[in-house]
Structures are given as structure tokens and as C-alpha cells.
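Key result, reporting period 2: structure in, sequence out.
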């Protein structure tokens, strides 16, 4: 393949400190596309201007492009040359017009970067460096241009032609072709360019902005999917209103379009005025989408919409600044979602996600700072650290400054950097200037990788309690020694006798290696509540007993802290059980009973709080992960919880069993507790559990209940299991997004034979590596099924490596994203570690390996 390179070639490393302004600016570009899946002709006209005094040539990035013609100021140029994939044009003056022409083949673009074909439509994905696969251009985010786009295509196959900005003109051509022109008045970097051509229909709406501009909205899909777009359209309108209310940000064009595409490398893309989405984050109806899907759709629609300001109006100077737009925008979408429903449940979900993906990244071979210093392939840096830890960093600034000063800071940032390509430093400096706060030490959050650890010890002497804190940041690749971080810690004490708060919540900025806090005049024994609301993205170790944790799980007035106390109690119990083969389950059982039967609590919260930590999170607490022992300990606690609270689970189940579907916070909470209760009933070994699950499966009027029941059955041994798997498949044959769930549910099964079954599923007629969602549903899900993937035979590792080697030939970006589970070998015993390394070595030795995979696999071996 064109951009393949062998592992023996020295990869080029791009370094942040090497940043230089572009040699040439491109204030205007006109693109003319003669669209055809087999051969699309792309003519580009660039107005280029020399930036500063220098005599360097114009270097236009290209990736697998061959120039058909190159003109300088309208005259066929002769002096140009190729430097590897790039086009080099010597120029004499300070401003020139450059015309180039290339021919590309979208239908052969399996990487899904640049212009590609998906299910009969043509669409683009340019971030980060896909534009250079479409035309020759200085493909870097600090080159901002005004775009005019003209598309010509066969009218029958591609009746709809969309691009960024506003539609300007359209008309008929010869031979059944037609054309359309779009202009985007806002200068933008090439990564925000997009076009879509296809046989599409729109769910249309409109939104009137604060200042009275009417914006025409369109969610574009293939016609059978039209009925599944109302939720996304509604979420878009809510997002537009929210950004006005909370950040004072209005939309700025007359149209805003979203297109759903089935083959897509990640979630969605914020192209100016033309967002392109993975269809899984648009399409929803009760029969095919779970509550989780509905929430994710609203969150991703909001995320991409919010990028219009945090990303598009103010963009990134270079890709090292990626978290400037992504961390901030994730924080914005998290806040939006928190405002739509239960803020506590949203925070719990976000922290669970952070712990499942970012903490392991930060403690492994691919750890990197929120603002990285170097990369080989930038696509590998669209990570949980950039996105989710980046969002936590913004959240901490919000916590430290308070909402009003934070808003003053974002106002200043947007006003000062509108229309420019900015840096993380610009953001932090705006926050400081608007608030008067000193964030100098806080900046270490951008430079130091690794999850800080805090040990917190509360000791009491009479009426006084002393909280002693110590912090450390572990070494990470390239960063052996760390400085202390600024940790905003929300702290409160509760009286263990009365259950009453003994002080107001304190916000402590813990900045040194060690600190102390003294509480006076205490009338009873205090219990420590710390890092409330997860105010800092850290690991906290305390000297709290099981009784303290059980107490907090029932009495803390911060719901997140209640959840956290329960999780810690469960974790301590499970870790003890793994270490010694057994543990006292009674404190967990009592705490779960208390929460489950607390009528004052939101069922959605209860459902989160009573869930046991995942196998992999338990493993993260241990020096050497023992997947089988963890699985046994967790199953044993689940069984005991199921049996001891049998009556309570059944009562919780029966209370909501007959509910009809309704998409509302109450409806969602009821469905969540229903499936959690079903899981515990099954875990108890109750004779009727499978029948109960099957009845839920068959009788469901929504996908949440149906998939919840299928998940329970898929991990069990009842013959109803096969019946449900088959019935699900038959019912949804032909619906790709639901078939993804079918593959995924089986890949996540806790049964002994999951590895064999997943190997067989990889041969299923509906399995394909060409569709990223499908590849992730089977391979990605299996690789995070700790017990199955880490089967001591090593067959899980071999299977995943085989699949990734095959996937890399088609789609390096998607393949490289699935490397991290193999890179966690240091956390396992010698036998597993050796087998994991052997697979990584086999990957690295594969001829023609992409640089995406090369970077991830070689780093994972270190
Ligand atoms: N900017 C997109 C977002 O909204 C994601 C782009 C991901 N690009 C990539 N090469 N992985 O988050
Ligand atoms: Zn984003």
C-alpha cells in the first residue's frame, strides 16, 4: 500500500519544539471535483503568499498522489519536483496562483481517510492528515483558507452534493450529471474540509439563534434510516441552545448539516457546517438502540456541534495542541449531558470510562502527556489522555476558578483567538488573565504524564483530626522523575455516630509532596470524604476501614462520593479475596442492601452503585494480574450478592418489569436497574433465571431490555442461550448496527469457551474487517474481555494479532487503535507476558506494516 513502510525504515519523528510558522500561507482555495468512485478528478487552485522573508520553495503535502498537471500563474510549470510524496514548487514572487490536478480512486480507499466510498455514497475524512490524500496542500492546521468547492457527479447515483459552508449554486450538466457549488466564508484549516455525495434524504429542522439568525438544519441519511434521526435532530437543537446559554456561543452559518456514514474510523467529525458521523452516533429508535446509544448520540452530536467554536473558530496551531480542542470540547459535552439528566450518574459514567481507558494508558507503554512532545503518526494520539484526561484538566481549571471566572476566561479566549490557530498555552494564559489566578504550577498537567497517587491518612486525637496527604506521580516513558502537581481536592468530614456533616466542603489545592490539614472541635469520630465529585483525576489511597466505606456509601451527601465509597469497599473485598482465596462478603452485602432499598435514591444511581468493579479495574489494583483468580473472586461475590439479596433483587425487578418504553430519565433508570437486578438473579444460580431472562428478551419493547437479557444469557449455560442468540440474529439480520451488538455481546461473554466462539465468529458471513464498527465489535470487545483474552494458552493473543495484521493492510488507523491490550504485558505473569510480547514482535516483523502500527507495537514492546 502507498503509505506502508517496513519496520526497518527509520520512522520520522515530529517534535513539538521544532514548530515553525508555515513558509507559505494559502488565503484562498478553489476545489473542483469531478466525482466518480473509480476515478475522481480533483483540480485545486491555491492563492499562495510567502510568509516572511525567505527563499524556500512551496512544499505541498501529498499522500499517494500523482500530479497530472501543475500550473504557476496560469502557465504549465516545469520546475516542480517530488520530495517523496510531496510536491515541491520553486517560486520567485511573494504571491502566486497554483493550479494542480490529480486523479484519485475513492472506491479503493480502504483506509477511510481522504475521499472514500461507503455504501454507495462518497464522503471525506480529513482530520488529521487526510486532506493530502485528496489534493496537494500544506496540510497543517495553522494554514487557514477560504474554501470554494464545486462538485460534479452523476445525478442518479449522487443526487445530493454537500460541502462546507453555504450552498451557492447548482445546475445540470451533460450526460446525466449535475453540479453544486458551496462557499465557506470562514477561513479554516484543511482538516475541516468535507464533501459528501450520495442518494440521501434529510430530516430537516431549523434553529433561531439568540441574535435572530435562522439556521436550516439537516440530518442526512439513506432513506430507510430517516425514521431514526429525530433523536439526533433534537439533540442538535438542545446543543445549539445550550452553547448560547452556557458559553454565549452562537452558530455562524445559515445551514448546519450532519451526514451519517456506515464506514467510519471513529465517532464523528466536526467539519465546518458539515459534520460527518459514524451512523452509530446518529441512528436510533427504541427497537434498535439502547439507552446507552441514545445518550451517546446526544453527547456526540453536542461534541461535534460545540467544536464549531472550540476547534473551528479557534483551531489548533499544530497537532501537539490537539487537547486544546478535544479536552475542552469533551468537558463541554460532558457538562451538556450532565445538564440534560442526572449529573451524578453522568459523572459516575465518565469516571468509570476514564478508569477503564485512560488510567491504563497512563500507566502503560503508550503513556503521554496531555500535550505530547513527539509523535510518529498523529492518528495514534487521538487517545483517552488527549480527550478524557484533557477534559479533566479543563474541569479542574473550572473547579479552581469557579464558574464565573471560568466563563470570563473562555470569553477572553474565544474573543482573542477567534479566527486563529492557538495553543494550550493560549488557553491557560486566557484563564489566568481573566481570573487573576496563577496557574504556573498547574501547567504540569499538560507536560507530565502518569496518574498522580495521593495517600490520605486521617488520624484523630481527642477533638482534633489531622489529615496527612502525600502525593507522587509515577515514572512514564521518557519521564523518569516528576514534580508535584496541583490537585484540587474536595474534602469533607462526616460524624460516624450521627452521620452528620462536620464541616462545609473544603476545596484544598494540594501542591506539594506532602501537606496537612487540621480539623478542630470535633464532637465525634470523623470519617473522611475526599476527592468528592472526583475533583482531581488521581488515585487516592486512604486508611479508611470497611466500616468507614460502608458508612459513607450510606451517608455521604455527594452522590459521587457515595458511589466511590461503595466501589472502594467492593474493590478492597475483591483484592483481598484474590490475594487469599476468600474474603468476608458481608460488609458489601449489607452496603448493597442499604443502597438498593433506599427509597430516596434515584434508581439510575442505585444501578451504578451496586455494580461490581470490572475484572480489568480489579486487575489494575494488583501488582501482577491473575485473570482467573479475579474472575473467580468476582463471580463468587456476585453469587453471594445474588443469593443474599434474592428478595431485594426480585422486588427491584418486579417493580419495573411491566414498564412500557419511554425515553426519559425515569424510564432509563428503571431499565438500568432491571437488567442489573436480572444479572444478580442469574448470578445467584436461581433455577428460573434463564427463563426470566428469556422472557425479558422476547417480551422487550426496546433494545436496552433485549440486549440486557441477551448479555445475561450469553454468559450463562442454559440452552436458552443459543435460542436467544439465534433469534436476535434472525430478527436483526441486515441491520449492521444491531449486528455489531450481536458480535460484541458474544465477545464479552464470561463463558469458558468465549475464545473459541470468537474465533468462529471471525469466520461468520457477516464478519468483515472492512467495516471499523464490526472489527471493533468483535476484535476490540474480545481484547478487553480480560479473562477470555488472557487465556493462558495464548490463543486470544494469537487471534487478535492475526486479525490486526490483516486489518492493518486495509485500515492502519483502526488496526493501531486495537494494539493497547497486547501492550499491557508488563502487568501479567511471565508466561503470559512472553506470549504477548511474541505477538507484538510478530506484528513488528510483518512486511509492509503501516507506520501507525509500527509506532504502537514498537512502543508497546519497550
Ligand atoms: N475531531 C474528531 C472528534 O470530534 C475526531 C477525529 C479523529 N481523528 C483521528 N484521526 N482519529 O473528536
Ligand atoms: Zn472532538
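The corresponding designed sequence is given below.
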Amino acid at each position: 500500500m502507498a503509505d506502508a513502510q517496513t519496520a526497518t525504515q527509520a520512522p520520522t519523528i515530529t517534535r513539538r519544539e521544532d514548530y515553525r510558522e508555515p513558509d507559505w500561507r494559502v488565503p484562498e482555495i478553489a476545489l473542483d471535483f469531478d466525482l466518480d468512485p473509480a476515478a475522481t478528478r480533483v483540480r485545486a487552485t491555491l492563492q499562495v503568499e510567502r510568509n516572511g522573508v525567505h527563499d524556500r520553495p512551496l512544499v505541498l503535502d501529498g499522500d499517494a498522489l500523482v500530479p497530472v498537471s501543475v500550473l504557476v500563474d496560469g502557465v504549465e510549470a516545469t520546475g516542480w519536483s517530488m520530495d517523496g510524496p510531496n510536491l515541491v514548487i520553486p517560486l520567485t514572487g511573494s504571491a502566486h496562483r497554483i493550479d494542480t490536478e490529480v486523479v484519485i480512486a475513492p472506491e479503493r480507499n480502504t483506509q477511510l481517510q481522504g475521499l472514500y466510498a461507503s455504501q454507495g455514497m462518497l464522503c471525506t475524512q480529513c482530520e488529521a492528515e487526510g486532506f493530502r490524500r485528496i489534493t496537494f496542500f500544506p496540510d497543517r492546521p495553522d494554514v487557514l483558507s477560504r474554501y470554494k468547492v464545486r462538485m460534479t457527479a452523476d445525478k442518479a447515483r449522487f443526487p445530493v452534493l454537500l460541502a462546507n459552508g453555504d450552498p451557492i449554486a447548482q445546475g445540470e450538466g451533460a450526460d446525466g450529471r449535475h453540479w453544486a457549488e458551496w462557499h465557506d466564508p470562514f477561513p479554516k484549516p484543511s482538516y475541516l474540509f468535507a464533501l459528501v455525495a450520495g442518494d440521501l434524504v434529510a430530516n430537516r429542522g431549523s434553529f433561531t439563534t439568540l441574535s435572530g439568525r435562522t439556521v436550516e438544519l439537516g440530518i442526512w441519511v439513506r432513506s430507510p434510516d430517516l425514521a431514526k434521526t429525530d433523536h439526533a435532530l433534537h439533540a442538535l437543537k438542545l446543543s445549539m441552545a445550550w452553547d448560547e446559554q452556557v458559553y454565549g456561543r452562537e452558530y455562524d452559518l445559515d445551514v448546519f448539516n450532519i451526514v451519517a456514514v456506515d464506514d467510519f474510523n471513529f465517532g464523528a467529525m466536526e467539519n465546518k457546517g458539515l459534520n460527518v458521523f459514524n451512523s452509530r452516533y446518529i441512528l436510533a429508535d427504541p427497537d434498535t438502540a439502547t439507552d446507552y446509544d441514545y445518550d451517546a448520540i446526544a453527547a456526540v452530536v453536542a461534541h461535534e456541534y460545540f467544536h464549531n467554536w472550540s476547534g473551528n473558530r479557534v483551531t489548533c496551531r499544530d497537532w501537539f495542541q490537539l487537547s486544546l480542542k478535544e479536552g475542552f470540547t469533551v468537558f463541554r459535552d460532558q457538562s451538556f449531558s450532565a445538564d440534560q439528566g442526572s449529573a451524578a450518574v453522568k459523572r459516575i459514567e465518565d469516571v468509570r470510562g476514564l478508569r477503564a481507558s485512560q488510567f491504563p494508558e497512563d500507566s502503560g507503554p503508550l503513556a503521554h502527556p496531555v500535550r505530547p512532545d513527539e509523535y510518529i503518526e498523529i492518528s495514534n494520539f487521538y487517545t483517552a489522555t488527549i480527550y478524557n484526561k484533557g477534559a479533566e484538566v479543563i474541569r479542574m481549571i473550572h473547579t479552581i476558578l469557579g464558574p464565573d471566572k471560568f466563563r470570563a476566561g473562555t470569553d477572553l479566549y474565544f474573543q482573542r483567538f477567534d479566527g486563529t490557530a492557538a495553543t494550550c498555552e493560549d488557553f491557560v494564559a486566557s484563564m489566568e488573565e481573566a481570573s487573576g489566578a496563577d496557574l504556573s504550577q498547574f501547567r504540569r498537567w499538560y507536560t507530565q504524564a502518569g496518574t498522580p497517587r495521593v495517600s490520605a491518612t486521617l488520624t484523630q486525637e481527642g477533638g482534633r483530626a489531622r489529615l496527612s496527604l502525600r502525593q507522587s506521580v509515577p515514572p512514564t516513558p521518557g519521564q523518569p522523575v516528576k514534580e508535584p502537581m496541583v490537585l484540587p481536592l474536595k474534602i469533607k468530614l462526616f460524624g460516624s455516630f450521627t452521620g452528620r456533616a462536620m464541616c462545609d466542603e473544603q476545596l484544598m489545592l494540594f501542591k506539594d509532596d506532602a501537606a496537612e490539614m487540621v480539623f478542630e472541635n470535633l464532637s465525634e469520630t470523623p470519617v473522611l470524604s475526599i476527592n468528592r465529585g472526583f475533583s482531581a483525576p488521581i488515585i487516592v489511597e486512604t486508611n479508611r476501614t470497611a466500616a468507614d466505606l460502608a458508612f459513607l456509601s450510606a451517608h455521604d451527601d455527594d452522590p459521587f462520593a457515595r458511589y466511590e465509597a461503595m466501589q472502594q469497599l467492593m474493590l478492597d473485598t475483591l483484592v483481598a479475596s484474590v490475594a487469599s482465596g476468600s474474603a468476608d462478603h458481608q460488609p458489601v452485602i449489607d452496603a448493597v442492601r442499604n443502597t438498593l432499598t433506599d427509597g430516596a435514591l434515584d434508581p439510575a444511581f442505585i444501578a451504578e452503585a451496586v455494580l461490581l468493579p470490572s475484572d480489568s479495574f480489579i486487575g489494575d489494583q494488583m501488582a501482577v494480574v491473575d485473570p482467573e483468580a479475579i474472575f473467580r473472586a468476582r463471580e463468587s461475590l456476585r453469587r453471594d450478592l445474588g443469593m443474599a439479596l434474592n428478595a431485594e433483587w426480585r422486588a427491584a425487578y418486579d417493580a419495573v418489569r411491566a414498564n412500557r418504553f419511554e425515553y426519559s430519565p425515569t424510564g432509563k433508570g428503571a431499565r438500568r436497574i432491571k437488567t442489573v437486578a436480572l444479572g444478580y438473579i442469574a448470578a445467584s444460580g436461581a433455577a428460573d433465571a434463564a427463563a426470566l431472562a428469556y422472557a425479558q428478551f422476547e417480551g422487550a419493547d426496546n433494545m436496552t431490555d433485549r440486549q440486557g437479557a441477551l448479555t445475561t444469557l450469553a454468559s450463562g449455560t442454559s440452552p436458552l442461550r443459543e435460542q436467544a442468540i439465534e433469534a436476535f440474529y434472525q430478527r436483526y439480520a441486515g441491520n449492521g448496527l444491531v449486528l455489531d451488538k450481536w458480535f460484541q455481546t458474544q465477545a464479552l461473554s464470561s463463558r469458558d469457551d468465549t475464545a473459541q466462539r470468537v474465533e468462529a465468529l471471525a469466520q461468520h458471513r457477516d464478519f468483515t474487517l472492512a467495516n471499523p464498527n464490526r472489527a471493533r465489535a468483535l476484535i476490540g470487545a474480545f481484547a478487553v474481555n480480560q479473562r477470555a483474552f488472557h487465556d493462558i494458552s495464548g490463543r486470544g493473543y494469537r487471534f487478535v494479532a492475526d486479525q490486526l495484521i490483516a486489518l492493518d493492510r486495509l485500515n492502519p488507523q483502526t488496526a493501531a487503535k486495537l494494539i493497547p491490550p497486547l501492550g499491557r504485558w508488563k502487568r501479567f505473569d511471565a508466561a503470559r507476558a512472553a506470549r504477548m510480547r511474541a505477538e507484538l514482535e510478530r506484528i513488528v516483523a510483518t512486511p509492509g506494516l503501516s507506520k501507525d502500527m509500527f509506532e504502537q507495537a514498537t512502543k508497546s514492546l519497550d
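Residues 127-128, 266, 268-270, 303-304, 307, 326, 379, 382 surround arginine (ligand 1) (CB under 6 Å). Confidence is low (pLDDT under 50) at residues 1-7. This case is discussed further under Risks and Mitigation.
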